[in-house]
Amino acid sequence: MNMKLVQWAYARKYQIRAVYDDFPETVFLFRRIGDFYFLFSCSGGEFTRLPERDDYNRMEELINEELGTLEHYLNRRSNRGAS
Fold first, then answer.
1. For 29-46, what is each residue's pLDDT tens digit?
2. Do residues 3 and 22 lie in contact, with contact meaning Cβ atoms separated by under 8 Å?
């Protein structure tokens, strides 16, 4: 799984739109929650394969890394205690 962030842009307040190379016809919308961004919704083209939870996690990691909030994302409450 070597997904790449192709492009991103600010949308509305606290929101980011992003496109990834594994799903180039789909725009993913992220919302800011506290000090990091979380996947909120997606829209666009047809999927050759449906994204799975691992894909969503990778997308969140990539966008947070790009925006400098990866440390906050990795230290979020729901991730504590996960190995």
1. 999 999 999 999 999 877
2. yes
Give the distance from CA 52 to its chain's centroid: 12
Is 0.85 surpassed by the pTM of this model?
yes
User: 26 — phi, psi (to 5°)?
Assistant: -120, 135
Structure tokens at 16: 């980011």
* Other beta carbons less than 10 A from residue 42's beta carbon: 16
User: What secondary structure does DSSP assign to 6-66, as a single string?
Assistant: EEEEE-STTEEEEEETTEEEEEEEEEEETTEEEEEEEEES--SS---HHHHHHHHHHHHHH
Tokens of 17: 């739109």
Structure tokens at 69: 């909030």
Q: Is 69 exposed, middle or buried (0-12, 13-18, 19+ CB in 10 A)?
A: middle
